[in-house]
Amino acid sequence: MSESEENLPSEPSHAHGGDVPAVRGHNEFADPGLPPHEHRRQDIDERAAKSSERTIAFLFLLSMLSTIGFIACFVVFPVDKIIYVFPFGHVSALNFSLGLTLGLALFCIGAGAVHWARTLMSDEEHAAERHPISAEPEVKAQVLADFAQGAKESGFGRRKLIRNTMFGALALVPLSGVVLLRDLGPLPGDKLRHTLWSKGKVLINQNTNKPLRPEDVPVGSLTFAMPEGLEENQERFQKEIAKAALMIIRLEPNDIKDKRERDWAHEGIVAFSKICTHVGCPISLYEQQTHHVLCPCHQSTFDLSDGARVIFGPAGHALPQLRISVNEEGNLIALGDFTEPVGPSFWERG
């Protein structure tokens, strides 16, 4: 044997038994095919099929009951009711009940559909060769025929109990969304048209919690006020101050352009709502030289020397003015409520 022959790799030896399978190609594998089809219990036992049918119908029925429960909870539970639920702690009774009932309604529809597909619909596997995206007319016809056959095998037309309860569940679930629209309706009544201000109510400085007097408001200053009797530690404070918050500004009487503003003022002291008429942000940026006040949210600008009319920005109308005067003790008081709703516009606003 030559030296070059000694360095060649030796061929594998098959002398010790066993045949080596032939290699079909570098990346080719034999098609294993589909395993033998195993019939489900429901395919061969009609009693099991009926049991599955009743289970699916029960899930759809439970979905309908949950939707009805959702509507009932929305009507029964007040917004401010708090309950203790382990392990979540103290939660809103309304939010918890709405989430629980709506979640159960949707889950039961999904669970019923999945159980239907797994136990009663046809589960035979069919292999088909890949074809071009644009199918031939024969293929399209075959697809439609297969769809019709699948619908037939699903038992949709034959199993009326499942079909009817599914339709009932699907028909009731959208009512949850319709009921939620109740909050967009005119349920507040006239609450948006009235605040805590009334004739004789003293203006309280929000910084000092003391009655405001004319001498406490120098020319060019900006002060925030709230109605007498409203305190920050009260449960209703946030709800009421959102409508009753005031800006108190003192102008030179000759600088006031609007006649009604001048008549409703006291010695140049004017009181306007602090709530922006765009989306309800609190206004707090005042420019003394121009008498303009700016909303920090979307830059709506109001001229406080001209009836607080809008001179820039998305706000739709002027800030409401509160008519004020002084009482016998020399404190600033309101002579009534706002004559128009404060804050953003709404469709019933006059």
From TrEMBL:
Localization per record: Cell membrane
SUPFAM superfamilies to which the protein is assigned, alphabetical: ISP domain (SSF50022)
Domain spans labelled Rieske: 269-333
Keywords for this protein: 2Fe-2S, Cell membrane, Disulfide bond, Electron transport, Iron, Iron-sulfur, Membrane, Metal-binding, Oxidoreductase, Respiratory chain, Transmembrane, Transmembrane helix, Transport
One Pfam family recorded for the sequence: QcrA_N
Chain intervals for the UniProt region annotation (Disordered): 1-39
Family stated for the protein in its record: Belongs to the Rieske iron-sulfur protein family.
Name of this protein: Cytochrome bc1 complex Rieske iron-sulfur subunit
